[in-house]
């Protein structure tokens, strides 16, 4: 396992981060504890969660359970100091989370205090804004995304409010670093500019979707990441399991994500099947595991701070963590590039 600095902070994170969003829905508390034990044994020091979790499905009845499970593991294992812990405050729109008001001074403080209580800790290493309060194109909203009806002054004022609140929480010792999630190039750069102008905490990372089928980050976001040292925390590196091949030709295994969420949040579309099959052909030619190849590709990207994996079984977790030992050959990378040129945007 390799480790990287998180942005310009002194925080060092494993190149694979343990995702948690199925803990409390598809996974029990004992499952979660077993996953954390195994991941730490294999060198993972980075866990990512959110006040919203679990998902698959998202539910007001289970909201917060994931953080509860992590907290009980900290209490049981005594390993809080060994873990870089990341969690998130929800953006606007989930009515059952503080009326759906989103991230602002009041709601950030309320969210963090509730998270700290569930997590049984007095600080979070990385605190992230889960999605912007203003409109954005993530979560397959690119089809209806319209920035032209947004109020710039209102958006910037909210960003400054968020930064000032996070800055105060850093001074109070409740968070160590700040991050964004599901953000755009303009959004990240505006946060960075406000930080410099107001001497406020600097964004260390951005957690956006990235995988072989969804490589939006390769363009302007990659440039920003390089010049500004804002690393990517890639979520859905297997495209919700699509890249494993389990869903080709209409497959819907019992207990899989698609058996609960039929289109996997809009990801499972006819256009992605030819690309998925092309990547599976590369896997077959070179004797690779499909999950391992997809994850190893993400790990090879120069802007990657950490790849967030999620597993509903120990078998999946072992395969995914094994990707840390895999380095793709130039021949495999060339074949991946060829498929990407043929199918550049499938999700």
From TrEMBL:
CDD domains noted in UniProt: AKR_Tas-like (cd19094)
Record domain NADP-dependent oxidoreductase: where: 15-339
One Gene Ontology MF term: oxidoreductase activity
Keyword entries, A-Z: Oxidoreductase
Membrane-spanning segments: none
Pfam assignment, any one: Aldo_ket_red
Gene3D superfamilies according to UniProt: NADP-dependent oxidoreductase domain
This protein's name: Oxidoreductase protein Tas
Species this protein is from: Rhizobium etli bv. mimosae str. IE4771
Gene symbol of the encoding locus: tas
């Amino acid at each position: 396992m390799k480790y990287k600095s998180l942005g310009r902070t002194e925080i060092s994170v494993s190149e694979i981060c343990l995702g948690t969003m199925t803990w409390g829905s598809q996974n029990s508390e004992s499952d979660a504890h077993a996953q954390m034990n195994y991941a730490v044994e294999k060198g993972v020091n980075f866990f990512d969660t959110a006040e919203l979790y679990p998902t698959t499905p998202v539910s007001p009845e289970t909201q917060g359970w994931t953080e509860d499970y992590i907290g009980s593991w900290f209490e049981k294992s005594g390993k809080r100091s060994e873990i870089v812990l990341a969690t998130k405050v929800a953006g606007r729109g989930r009515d059952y989370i503080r009326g759906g008001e989103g991230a602002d001074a009041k709601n950030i403080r309320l969210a963090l205090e509730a998270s700290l209580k569930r997590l049984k800790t007095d600080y979070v290493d990385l605190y992230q804004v889960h999605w912007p309060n203003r409109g954005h194109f993530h979560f397959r909203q690119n089809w209806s995304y319209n920035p032209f009806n947004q109020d710039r002054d209102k958006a910037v004022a909210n960003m400054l409010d968020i930064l000032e609140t996070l800055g105060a929480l850093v001074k109070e010792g409740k968070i160590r670093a700040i991050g964004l999630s599901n953000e755009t190039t303009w959004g990240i750069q505006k946060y960075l500019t406000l930080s410099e102008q107001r001497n406020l905490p600097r964004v260390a990372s951005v957690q956006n979707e990235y995988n072989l089928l969804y490589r939006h980050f390769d363009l302007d976001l990659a440039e920003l990441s390089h010049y500004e040292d804002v690393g990517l925390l890639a979520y859905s590196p297997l495209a919700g399991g699509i890249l494993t091949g389990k869903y080709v030709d209409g497959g819907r295994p019992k207990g899989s994500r698609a058996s609960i969420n039929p289109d996997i949040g809009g990801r499972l579309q006819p256009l992605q099947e030819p690309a998925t099959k092309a990547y599976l052909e590369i896997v077959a030619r070179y004797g690779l595991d499909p999950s391992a190849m997809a994850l190893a590709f993400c790990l090879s990207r120069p802007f990657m701070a950490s790849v967030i994996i999620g597993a509903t079984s120990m078998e999946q977790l072992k395969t995914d963590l094994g990707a840390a030992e895999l380095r793709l050959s130039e021949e495999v990378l060339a074949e991946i590039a060829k498929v990407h040129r043929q199918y550049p945007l499938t999700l």
